[in-house]
Amino acid sequence: MAGLIRQQKLAVEVDFYGFALQDLDDTQVPLEYPEGREAGGAFLTAHEGRLDIESAGHTHTAAMTAEVWDGEPPTADDRGDWEEQAEAQLHSPSGELALWGVAAGNHNRYVTVHAYHPRGVNRALRAGVRCVEHGNLLDDDTIRLLLEHDAYLVPTLVTYDQMARFGKHAGMPEQSYRKIAEVHEAGLTALERAHRAGVNLVFGSDLLGPLQSAQLEEFTLRAQVQPPADILRAATTTAARLLRMEGEIGTLAVGACADLLVVDGNPLDDIRVLTRPEQHLRHVIKAGTVI
Ligand SMILES: [Zn+2]
After folding, report:
1. In 223-282, which ranges are continuous DSSP H helix?
2. How far is the CA of 242 from the centre of ligand 1 (A)?
3. pLDDT 10s digits, 115-166
4. Domains assigned to the chain
């Protein structure tokens, strides 16, 4: 009699689509979900390296239970009276499975991914994500997909800059440190390419904890490849568009939130006016009130 070794339960957002279980090692999956997905197709379809599970059209969240058995598990017939049951085989060379969904952009929500390798970034863009954080290693396809889908890119140069500067000191392992250095260098080139191509760029840092104090450095880093006006747009109008808050934030207009910074100097001439608040920041106005 086979014994249950491990069980994992997950709530999977599927909306009106479905999800796939596929080998965690991408190279074992010739066609990555949702490519080749049959909309409204069979409940269960096996592809090489992946299993597609399709919603009947009224599911929002699927209750997914994965079990590992040390022998032949009990057959599905023992599991009660389901409307639909199916069996399929999946060979997973890596021994780990990842769950992929396509529930992006429904119900007025959108999805953002944090990724820097084009393989993951491009796949996410094809699946309909609205925004990519990092994107340091982007390629031509990434640029094309960002433009085609009117998606957004949030380069986070300062995060890598900080890690490259202080990672070694903070005890980061040599291998991770070298990887960071590589990604760090690519980040600036990626921003330049995206900027030239006219991609929607948004200001952000993704800095954690105490490193947040370095967030204004992102302005200085971007100024190496972008004119100040474009960096300001990334932090205001384009950011508002990403958040679907156009006309409310990131603009000086009647009806918008009166959140303003008054600085001594012209950031269009020198972006550093924004990075040295102790020297240049004169007033902060929040919801119409001077603070
Ligand atoms: Zn991130």
Report:
1. 228-235, 237-242, 277-280
2. 17
3. 888 888 898 898 888 999 999 999 999 999 999 999 999 999 998 888 888 7
4. 1-103 (no CATH), 106-247 (3.20.20.140), 258-291 (no CATH)
